[in-house]
């Protein structure tokens, strides 16, 4: 193994995740007539955990005194998108008023078609490094 030191793992040496630009929809065009790219900023593990915790729901199992915890996937996805999209500003009052939306979550759902929303979610997942499966990571280490 190369350099059996921990230097490369130190915080100050780690490469910070970069913002990603993604054209979520070709329907939003700039003055030049070209589609406007959305900016996606990766979040930390702590931020991701807070989003997941906010979207965990308890329900009682019928006929027992037990509770079951599940993740509201739809709301988690929506909250994750809202946390990562930094442009356009989904919290902009002007933008929300334009779509008669209350809150960033409702706004992004109103702005995009179902396919565009799904593509944006995939881009958010990739920006946060969820795209590579274990097989790909193992191959990368072997090569």
Explain this structure.
- The structure is a single chain.
- This protein is α+β, with helices and mostly antiparallel strands and about 140 residues long.
- It is built from six helices and five strands, in the order E-E-H-E-E-H-E-H-H-H-H.
- The strands form two sheets. Strands 1-2-5 form a three-stranded antiparallel sheet. Strands 3-4 form a two-stranded antiparallel sheet.
- Strand 3 and strand 4 form a beta hairpin.
- The radius of gyration is 19 Å and the shape is flat.
- The mean pLDDT is about 90.
Strand order of the largest sheet: 1-2-5
Number of helices: 6
Rg, Å, rounded: 19 Å
Q: Could you tell me how far the N terminus lies from the C terminus, measured between alpha carbons in angstroms?
A: 13 Å
Q: Helicity range of the residues?
A: 40-55%
pLDDT below 50 for ≥5 consecutive residues: which ranges? none
Secondary structure: number of strands: 5
- Main beta sheet, described? 3 strands, antiparallel
Order of helices and strands: EEHEEHEHHHH
Mean pLDDT: 90
